[in-house]
Amino acid sequence: MAESNDKLPAASLVAEIHENQFGGDPRVFLAPGRVNLIGEHTDYAGGFVMPAAIDFGTFASISARRDGRIEIWSQNFKEGVTYGANEVPQKRTQHWSDYPLGVLWALRKEGVEVPAFSMVLHGNVPLGAGLSSSASVEVASALALLHLADAKMERTAIAKLCQKAENAYVGASCGIMDQFIACQGAEDHALLLDCRSLEFRLAPIPRHVGLVIANTMVKHSIAGGEYGTRRAEVEEGTAILREHRPEIALLRDATPEDLERWGSEMPDNVMRRCRHIITENLRTVAAADALASGNLKRLGDLMAAAHVSYRDDFEASCEEADIMVAAAQSLPGLIGARLTGGGFGGCTVNVVEEEVAARFAEQLREEYQAATGIQAEIYRCHASAGAHAVEKSG
Ligand code: ADP
Ligand code: MG
């Protein structure tokens, strides 16, 4: 399975695997994984997130078949599935093939006629580590299937379609961020996304800046349940604010002043969950502005404040993540560090001076191991392009 230091395979290798497996003359597409730089639990409040696509990704190669069958091979799993083109399961089978088949299902629901095909998936996004291998598989598959069907679709529509595949077919309740950034990411840029309107703007990440993603290797079992609790708390707080200001449809519409006036009507935990989201929205937009004006110090301060808010107000951090962030803050070359993702473990994201990124990653690993006894996986990456077709010779 994909490891931290696995390189992205060459597109020519993917084409070669495809030709050996199926013959045919494949076209190859690549979609990236992602990391969220700031904006946590703001998506369902209609707010802002700021992810970057990364140079870990998944290829999907595709060629037409004449025998009326569909065959999908995952080089990572060294395993394939095959169905008659019109006998594809209409719901999940709890297998990795749910992801590409979910996209096929969603496309057909949109009326896109996809003929019989062979597909190979091959990538280096570590699975389930929080870098969104699932969205990279979906979006790469979507580009490949759209190409085969000779159909056009806007990037935002592709992102929505892939989200639908994951929600309704795979059965995982994710927001739009992962699929959106996989579609719309740009090299050397983060992307500020308004999760309600889906308007976005790119924010430049200078060339001398690298991203170091540090996997704490823990995911506390409370994560699933607490996610639901947090959503309910946020809804409870929003309802209280809405009694005073009916135009607050989602918490994203509320201001710090609203919370100052009416927060005392909420239980303390509810007030703090709301405070995290309201301030996080402001920080996320400010972080995009900081990048736009080249103010990396400000970006780092906002990331530090975001971590404190996530830890103390939203109470979604954990001891290991706090150790990882504190260790990063003591190392040379750090611009900003925080826990990224849904919380209770997972990865921290570190924005660092590229010049010292290798040493930074090594020291972070050592300090984390000394403090916790856990061997972290570290992924060094750069802000990269969104999904695209690639030359087979590449
Ligand atoms: P994440 O998106 O955070 O990596 P998920 O649990 O959402 O984790 O998605 C991981 C799943 O996506 C894997 O278990 C597998 O089913 C599917 N997947 C990811 N990459 C591949 C691949 N290269 N080939 C086949 N399936 C893949
Ligand atoms: Mg996923």
What would you say this structure looks like, in words?
With 394 residues, the chain is of the alpha+beta class. The chain has a domain at 11-205 and 384-390: 2-Layer Sandwich (Ribosomal Protein S5, domain 2), CATH 3.30.230.10. 42% of the residues lie in helices and 24% in strands. The chain is built from 11 helices and 12 strands. It has helices spanning 11-22, 98-109, 133-149, 155-170, 177-184, 223-244, 256-262, 268-292, 296-313, 319-329, 357-372, and strands spanning 27-38, 48-64, 69-74, 79-84, 117-123, 189-194, 200-204, 209-219, 334-339, 345-353, 377-381, 388-390. Strands 1, 2, 3, 4, 5, 6, 7 and 12 form an 8-stranded mixed β-sheet that branches. It has a 4-stranded antiparallel β-sheet with strand order 9-10-8-11. Helix 2 crosses helix 3 (133-149), helix 6 packs across helix 8 (268-292) and helix 8 (268-292) runs antiparallel to helix 9. The longest helix is centred in the C-terminal third of the chain and has 25 residues, at 268-292. The radius of gyration is 21 Å and the shape is globular. Mean pLDDT is 96; it is low at 1-5. The chain binds adenosine-5'-diphosphate and magnesium ion. The site of magnesium ion (MG) has 3 residues, from helix 3. Residues 58, 74, 76-77, 96, 99, 121, 123, 127-134, 137 line the site of adenosine-5'-diphosphate (ADP).
Number of H/I helices: 11
The CATH topology of one domain is Ribosomal Protein S5, domain 2
Calculate the mean pLDDT score and round it.
96
Query: What is the element string, with H for helices and E for strands?
Result: HEEEEHEHHHEEEHHHHHEEHEE
* First and last CA, distance: 23 Å
CATH secondary-structure class of one domain: Alpha Beta
Radius of gyration: 21 Å
CATH architecture of one domain: 2-Layer Sandwich
> What ligands are attached or bound here?
adenosine-5'-diphosphate, magnesium ion
Question: Main β-sheet, in a few words?
Answer: 8 strands, mixed
| Overall helicity | 40-55%
Shape: globular
Query: Which structural class matches the secondary elements?
Result: alpha+beta
Strand content: 15-25%
Number of DSSP strand runs:
12
Which residues sit in consecutive blocks of at least 5 with pLDDT less than 50?
Answer: 1-5
